[in-house]
Design goal:
440 residues, mainly alpha, two-stranded parallel sheet, two-stranded antiparallel ribbon, xanthine transmembrane transporter activity, transport, transmembrane
Length: 440
């Protein structure tokens, strides 16, 4: 039995149709879309090691290997790309300053082990308790806040070269609505190319390939568990686990909603195990910790292609690129303006996926508990709220997630005890047929 069945004629996707995880388009289209996913994740995946001082090529290598490992553990049924997680930036920076790279890698490995253990519990116990713990209004809020929390990063890139960013963003949108078939599905890729050309014309690209070899292995390093400093900084990594759980659960819910396949939610435990294993592998050999990437979720939302074949291509593409310092330098030369234009669209699409979860599950926003659950979580995320108790740092994703969970569960308990009707009463019942012409 083939790993993927061909979708239709392999060339086109009918309006309103989707390419399921178990399907694929023709290989030329699949390869091109895999390259598009690499470009989508590239800016963020490169930014994390750049900020923390880790080798960029090593991080890229383990993002590719981690993606393939993720696909294997989830049975080739859950399309996701594992890129370097922003949640590690603060604790890694602090750990490197206190005890060196070895201490930081030890913290990354510890996070991966704990995440995999949580995933094992979810897998064995089932996802029913996850559904109760994170009902649609909460799950949608978490997915949405992940995207909207990144809006500041998009703006920082955008404002660095607003003309280039605006042209790039407009190119992505125009290509997506003007072109049919293959060209329409790689609108993000085309937008990056157009933006890159514009940036080159405007003199915004800093690219010097002198002396850079075409092929070369990335550098490796190992964690240091023996140093007392390592254990003194380990507590700073604990909040990262909360972020990775929220991101993974949110992304699985988002993919299940987009791919119109609720059974994908059953893979939540395996997704956590896979991300944990990939993080352990990366941290054990000198790479950054990983997470399921919202940028690539945004690409799927734009293309409606959820084939895991595309992610196999993207993972292999990343591994090959990590072996070429020359190619890596070219990709790394994509300027801020181009990244700002693309991520403005991608991060917004992630937020819309969360809203789609609300719509698909007919969340009743006439109920105050649901209103405040979503409202507070989104403002915390968009506003970039930060809490820094001694030795820790909790950012907008963690605080927004905690706010959504606390408001929903505590608010429901109080409202039901008081019988005020403010609690979540379940989905709004449908009145008449959903969709179609109401006059027929």
């Amino acid at each position: 039995m083939p790993l993927w069945t061909r979708h239709g004629d392999g060339q086109s996707v009918k309006p309103g149709a989707i390419v399921k995880p178990t399907e694929r388009l023709g290989w030329p289209s699949t390869i091109a879309m895999g390259a598009q996913h690499v470009i989508a994740m590239f800016g963020a995946t490169f930014l994390v090691p750049t900020l923390t001082g880790f080798p960029v090529s090593t991080t890229l290598l383990f993002s590719g290997i981690g993606t393939i490992l993720f696909l294997l553990i989830t049975g080739n049924k859950l399309p996701s790309y594992l890129g370097s997680s922003f949640a590690f930036i603060a604790p890694v920076t602090a750990a490197v300053a206190a005890g060196g790279t070895g201490s930081a890698l030890a913290g990354i490995v510890a996070v991966g082990v704990l995440l995999a253990l949580i995933g094992l519990v979810v897998h064995v116990a089932g996802v029913a308790w996850v559904d109760r713990f994170m009902p649609p209004v909460v799950a949608g809020a978490i997915v949405a806040l992940i995207g909207f929390n990144l809006s500041g990063a998009a703006w920082n890139n955008f404002k660095a070269a607003p003309v280039t960013a605006l042209i790039t963003l407009a190119s992505v949108i125009v290509c997506g609505v003007v072109f049919r078939g293959f060209l329409g599905r790689i609108s993000i890729f085309l937008g990056v190319i157009i933006g890159y050309v514009v940036a080159a014309i405007r003199g915004e690209i800093d690219l010097d390939l002198t002396g850079i070899p075409v092929f070369g292995l990335p550098p490796f390093d190992v964690p240091d568990f023996g140093s007392p400093t390592t254990w003194s900084v380990m507590a700073m990594f604990l909040p990262v686990v909360l972020v990775l759980v929220a991101e993974n659960v949110g992304h699985v819910r988002g993919v299940a909603s987009m791919a119109e396949d609720p059974s994908i939610n059953q893979l939540t435990g395996k997704a956590l195990i896979a991300d944990g294993a990939a993080t352990v592998l990366a941290g054990g050999l000198g790479g950054s910790g990983t997470t399921t990437y919202g940028e690539n979720i945004g690409v799927m939302a734009a293309t409606r292609v959820y084939s895991t074949a595309v992610y196999w291509v993207a993972g292999l593409f990343a591994i090959v690129l990590s072996m070429s310092p020359l190619v890596g330098a070219i990709f790394n030369s994509i300027p801020q303006g181009v990244l700002g234009g693309v991520t403005t669209a991608l991060y917004g699409l992630i937020g819309i996926i969360g809203i789609k979860i609300w719509v698909d599950n007919r969340v009743d926003f006439s109920r105050p508990v649901n209103q405040y659950t979503a409202a507070v979580a989104l403002v915390v995320a968009v506003g970039g709220f930060v809490w820094k108790p001694e030795g820790f740092e909790f950012g907008g994703i963690v605080l927004g997630t905690v706010a959504a969970l606390v408001i929903y569960h505590v608010g429901n308990a109080i409202a039901r005890a008081r019988k005020t009707g403010a609690d979540d009463g379940g989905p709004i019942p449908a009145v008449g047929p959903l969709g179609g012409d109401p006059n027929n």
